[in-house]
Design brief:
This protein has 4 domains: about 230 residues, MFS general substrate transporter like domains (Growth Hormone, Chain: A, Up-down Bundle); about 70 residues, no CATH class; about 200 residues, Up-down Bundle (Growth Hormone, Chain: A), CATH 1.20.1250; about 45 residues, no CATH class. The longest helix is centred in the N-terminal third of the chain and has 29 residues. The relative contact order is 0.11. It has 26 helices and 6 strands. The strands form 3 sheets. A two-stranded antiparallel ribbon has the order 1-6. The protein has a two-stranded antiparallel sheet with strand order 2-3. A two-stranded antiparallel ribbon has the order 4-5. By secondary structure, it is mainly alpha-helical.
Length: about 575
Amino acid sequence: MNFDAVLRHLGEFGTYQKRLCTLLWLPGITTGMRMVVSAFIQFIPEHRCVIPGLNSDTYAIQSHDHARLINESIPFKIVGGRIEYDPCRVYIRDPGSKNNDTWNINHTTLATEACNKWVYDSSVFVSTAVSQYDMVCDNTLDRTNAQSLFMAGFLVGVFVIGAFSDRFGRKTALMVSLLVNLICGFSLNYLPEHISYTMFRFLLGASSSGIFTTSFVMSVEIVGASKRVFVGVFIQYTFAAGELLICAVAYFLRHWHHIEIVCTAAVAIFLSYWWLIPESPRWLVTKGRTQEAEVIVRKMAKVNKVTVPEHLFAEKMEEEEKGSRSQIKDFLKLFTRRVLLIRTLIIFFNWFVISMLYYGVSLNTRNLGGSNFYLTFAISGLVEFPGIFLCNLFMDRWGRKRLLCVVNVVGGTCCLLTIFTILYASESLQWMTIILAMIGKMGSAGCFANVYVFSSELFPTVVRNVAVGASSSWARAGAMMAPYIAYAGEITGGDFGRALPLLVFGSVTLAAGLLALVLPETLNKDLPETIEEAEHFGRKSISTEDEEVMGGLNHETNNSVAMDTKCGSDRHEKLLANGNMD
């Protein structure tokens, strides 16, 4: 059975596919929740050292005597008319001395030491993983590692769960990922220290990757080639919806255990998919289980109200194992040809930068300023919708290269401009910092859709699957790097520390946008099929240049370009049918 031939009779996006894709898009909501939940459960509350000897100490001032003890024990400075206590140090006091008010006169003459116990502000969150495991001060890197290893788990999950699904089936892989996610998510609330917490966060990242990737693959495998881009892009809207949903959950619950329970419990709903969705018929065909695939196809035909010719069920699927092996060999050729190497590295760099900016802004919303953390985070989720919509709207009008360049340059420039609002604007104008950062976030959200399509068109057919998969892995590397850049800002401290991550994000995003100009445009062009075609793609031949100089064959050249433009879209759809969108 040739499944693509069957789809042409079933309809590329019939009623059955629409229903199934709707179900498969929904896990994108819980994945969106999981990917940014650390912004809430790993939120760093305002904190200071515990007053030595005062076991009942709290961050909130309880009385005048309590305020006096804090002033005598904790270093502080006056900033903007308000007291800011040192979050990590306490005065060294002579055990034989008594409390006296003269300590308030010149604290700078007193020695300090690092403390190992803290009290936390509970106005934003009652409790977070940071406050429970004391991931502050000298232990701040523990928080950064937990977030980075979550992203590392997501990267590992792409390969491990992907290989598992190729061998045992998409549906089985989805169920295994759901079960692992449930077990690790609920267990996260009962772990004794940060090391086990970090390990379980890694497993959560891997299983979340399995849920999202498998759902994505199943949705694009069930539709025709012309609808794969639409299906692949639409799931990003559900991902953004998940960000907004977890923000609302966090706003009402305020305790990281409760937030984590809700985030995990939402995943349990999709265990019902064992009975609601079928195995991918395309995967069944590739495994030779044609009878099972035929049952699903006949059901699809019934729902879509079409008839599939009987002879299609008797056709044998072409052998693709040899082609898969040669795909790896051809992929390596991308790094041995100068032109292809440059283009490949630029694409990899764009994936890396776009993801780094996206998660860098999403997970460090607190450092952007603003009086309401929840409102700022909600805005960062909302801007994704126009970002995705506008990029998809202009992708076929401006072209992939121009759009990628413009959006990256604008987003990167906005991030760079935050240095002026953070360092020189007053507190009342910090909303400008948020707006500039949100423009950068909006651009990165839209660029995800653009760079995916651009990558799939730029790489030749013989390596398209492997090359796009390798490109997307660089996005995970960018997400892993983002927490460490934010950490660099934290240890730098001050207003420049707040601006530093955005300066880094803006600089590399601007560079990625400018480098995109080196790439050839793929809109309405015949896409390369072989390594040789890819090497010459977008480059004029010597004979063509001579003809243009002589002006002898302008008419034929113009007709050729017009013909390419007319048939480019059909050729693209045909080529995508040979590719794998994951």
